[in-house]
Amino acid sequence: MKSVIILVLILSLSAFVPGQTRSENPENQNRIFSEIASAASKVDTFECDFLQEKHMSMLDNILISKGRLYYKRNNRLRWEINHPAKSGFAVNGDHAKRWEGDSGRSQTFKVDQIPFIKVFADQVFTWARADFKNLEKRYHIKVLSDAPIQLMLLPISPQEKKYLDHLRISFAADASYVNAVEVHEPDGDFTRINFSNIQINNPLHDSLFN
Amino acid sequence: MIMSSIVAHLYLFFSQHRSMVFVATLASIIVSVITFVHLNLNENIESMLPDNKTNTAFNFKLLQQAPFSRKVVINLKKGANGSENELIEAADRLAQAMTPPFFTHVVSGTGESLNLEFLLWMINAYPSLFAEADINKIQEKLAAATVSQKLKELYARLLSPEGLGMKRLFQVDPLDFRLNTLEKLRFLNIIPRMRIEKGHFISPDGKNVLILAETPFEITDAEHGREMLAHFQGLLADLIPDNISVSMISGHRYTLANIDAIKKDIAIILICSSLGIFILFLLFLRSLGGLFVFLVPICVLCISTAGVSIFYRTLSAVTIGFGAVLLGISIDFAIHVYFALRSNPGNPQEALARVSRPIIFCALTTLGAFGVLSFSTLPVQRELAVFAIIGVCVSLILSLIILPHVPRLTQVYKKKEETYKKIEFRMARRWVVCGWLALLIICAWQGTRLHFDGDLRALNLVPDEIRNIEDTLQQTWGNFRGTAVIFAEGPDLQTALEINDRIFRYLIQNSSSGSIVSLAPILPSLKTQQSNRQRWNDFWSNARKEYLNELLTTEGKLIGFKSTAFRPFFRLITEPSPFITVEDLRTNGLSEIVDSLIIPADKNVKVLTLLPDTPEIAVLLEHSGLDRSGIQLASQNQFRQTISKAIADDFIQFILKASGVVILLLLLFFRNLKKVLIALIPVVSGMLFMVGVMGVLGIGFNLFNIVAAILIIGLGVDYGIFMVTKITHGLDLATQRAVFVSGLTTLAGFGALVMARHPALHSIGLSVLVGIGAAIPSALLVIPAIYRINDKPASGLEKYRNE
Question: Beta-carbon neighbour count of residue B186 at 10 Å?
Answer without folding.
Answer: 12
